[in-house]
From TrEMBL:
Domain Peptidase S1: 46-272
An annotated GO BP: proteolysis
PROSITE patterns tied to this protein: TRYPSIN_DOM, TRYPSIN_HIS
Protein name: Trypsin-1-like isoform X1
Keywords: Disulfide bond, Hydrolase, Protease, Serine protease, Signal
Residues passing through the membrane, by range: none
Superkingdom of this protein's organism: Eukaryota
Length: 273
């Protein structure tokens, strides 16, 4: 993988030279320090998915909107659910059927929703600030299978090479005809910002980070996992947002960065968390 690492470094220096030479203001470009010091995720492991138990992810919920599409979310307090804006924009709360407390997506406790609030600047620019919160009609009754997940402090860094856990009922392979009945989970490495930028240079912002095996691909997030959380150090650090395919080489999954100021401040403003 040494040649790949050299390529990333060379390409990064080229981009930085172009920025200086032509006076371009590319605020989302990786910095020189990131190119030279950020660890590159170049191990030869393919991290596969497996069946999971809700007891290990008691924050995990699922919801259907108008019986048309499926997303995930996370309990963050007795009154609030965290999810993705692209799952929740312009959604009437009465059309949401949200369930928690079960490893099986069609089982569990139905949690009625009173209010759905997507980030007002979602998708400006494209895919950016992909975060929303849902307020429950009644406080959630916590149990062994329904518990809140903590949130990171503002500007907490995501370091390339560290690992996160992601759970959900998304498709287990690209092009699959249906989503699984049973909760699945996967452990994936955080992709360094320079590598992520190589894959998504036209849309990546500082409010995002990537996860997956950058060079080899393998299991990652897929359709149906959207809105669920990536967990690290007992906290929800990312929201499943978008990607190019599912577990493809050079196309890692992209997460909304919960610690990024525009996202963390939005959550704080509406939930006081």
């Amino acid at each position: 993988m040494e040649s790949s690492e050299h390529f990333v470094t060379f390409f990064g220096l080229t981009l930085l030279y172009s920025q200086l030479a032509y006076g371009l203001d590319f605020s989302n470009f990786p910095t020189l320090e990131e190119f030279l010091k950020e660890p590159m995720v170049n191990d030869d492991r393919i991290v596969g998915g497996q069946e999971a138990f809700i007891d290990d992810y008691p924050h995990q919920v699922s919801f259907v909107v108008n019986n048309t599409y499926f997303c995930g979310g996370s309990i963050i307090s007795e009154n609030w659910i965290l999810t993705a804006a692209h799952c929740s924009q312009n959604v009437d709360p009465s059309t949401v059927v949200l369930r928690g407390g079960s490893s099986w997506r069609k089982n569990g406790t139905i949690i009625p929703i009173e209010k759905v609030i997507a980030h007002p600047e979602y998708d400006n620019p494209a895919f950016d600030k992909d975060v929303a919160v849902m307020k429950t009609k009644e406080p959630i009754q916590f149990s062994d299978t329904m518990q809140p997940i903590g949130l990171p402090s503002i500007d907490r860094a995501m370091r390339g090479g560290t690992e996160v856990s992601v759970s959900g009922w998304g498709r287990t392979e690209q092009g699959a005809a249906s989503i699984p009945e049973r909760l699945m989970d996967v452990r994936i490495p955080v992709v360094s910002y320079p590598e992520c930028f190589l894959s998504y240079f036209s849309v990546l912002t500082r409010n995002m980070w990537c996860g997956g095996n950058f060079f080899l691909g393998g299991q990652g997030t897929c359709q149906g996992d959207s809105g669920g959380s990536a967990i690290q150090d007992g906290m929800a650090v990312g929201i499943v947002s978008f990607g190019r395919g599912c577990g493809q080489s050079f196309a890692p999954s992209v997460f909304a960065n919960i610690a990024a100021p525009p996202i963390r401040n939005f959550i704080k403003e509406h939930t006081d968390l």
